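Annex B.
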Amino acid sequence: MTTTTEHNERIAKLTFASVYPLYVVKVEKKGRTKEELHQVIEWLTGFNEKDLRVLIDENLSFETFFQKAKLNSNAHLITGVICGYRVEEITNPLTKQVRYLDKLVDELAKGKKMDKILRKA
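DUF2200 domain-containing protein: predicted structure tokens.
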């Protein structure tokens, strides 16, 4: 499935602050912790917990959020399907980055081991 221009624009305008609480609920409902979520987000973006609080308070769009991020050099190892899209086939860079984050949160919620989520071994 390919993304449309409208889909990519909608993703870019979403705010991290609006999606973050949904990530927290998703992982905690499955027995994982907010600290583990922060570890996953920091691995992908370079943002620590303090950074996240500031970014949430600034109510940044995903576009600005990922412009400020330092994407992990191993992010390209994130593959698979999330929200009906195969991550490695997404051509829009921002949409791909957002789906990387969605995929990592999904893997955390599904109980995958942290080493696997963080593409260590």
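The mean pLDDT is 95. The CA atoms of residues 76 and 88 lie 8 Å apart. Further annotation is deferred to the next reporting cycle.
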